What we know:
Largest sheet: 9 strands, mixed
Number of strands: 9
Helix content: 25-40%
Shape: globular
Bound molecules: SN-glycerol-3-phosphate, magnesium ion
Number of domains: 1
Strand content: 15-25%
CATH architecture: Alpha-Beta Barrel
Strand order of the largest sheet: 1-9-8-7-6-5-4-2-3
CATH superfamily: Phosphatidylinositol (PI) phosphodiesterase
Number of helices: 8
CATH class: Alpha Beta
Amino acid sequence: xxxxxxxxxxxxxxxxxxxxxxxxxxxxxxxxxxxxxxxxxxxxxxxxxxxxxxxxxxxxxxxxxxxxxxxxxxxxxxxxxxxxxxxxxxxxxxxxxxxxxxxxxxxxxxxxxxxxxxxxxxxxxxxxxxxxxxxxxxxxxxxxxxxxxxxxxxxxxxxxxxxxxxxxxxxxxxxxxxxxxxxxxxxxxxxxxxxxxxxxxxxxxxxxxxxxxxxxxxxxxxxxxxxxxxxxxxxxxx
Length: 238
Ligand code: G3P
Ligand code: MG
């Protein structure tokens, strides 16, 4: 597959330069010229998809407790950093569309909510991005979430997200009809890159924060790099 998306993507909105997974972070990334963003989507207890990485609130907000135990109304009272609220998925999409930026939407289910999260995110993705010039790419570490997303909206492209490339990566990607492998950059070798491309899949690497690594990995054939270092690996990095 040829990669139709931006090649350098801001991790969790604005990488390390802004409170993660917030609208403020996405605005910052866009203001620096980034044309693509990655963020994480989880279901609140009332089924509202929200943008947050952890199942618990403590690390990234001033709240206490678990995301799946609270309604969106409750979650919206917390500060996710510099006065930002935890965004709803629909707010994040509206902002991306407004700013003209593409998104890698990572489905990040709280434990035990894999299928429900995959289904809800796929359903909303189909509606919210309808008519966008460049639709998003869904991804997840959870094969159950990806399978559920596929069953609801098979037309939405999917990436198989892994920390370490497993020996059966090809079987899993075929089974889930994924278009790209999203892996930790440390687990990619030249041999694997050739095999993955040879099998017709794209390669997205996270989280690449050193310009020397970025250069080497692009040379190795990576199609896309997700970075926290927005100031050192800019949107036009080659
Ligand atoms: O989607 C790439 C990357 O975000 C995966 O790891 O833990 O930052 O969501 P994490
Ligand atoms: Mg993520």
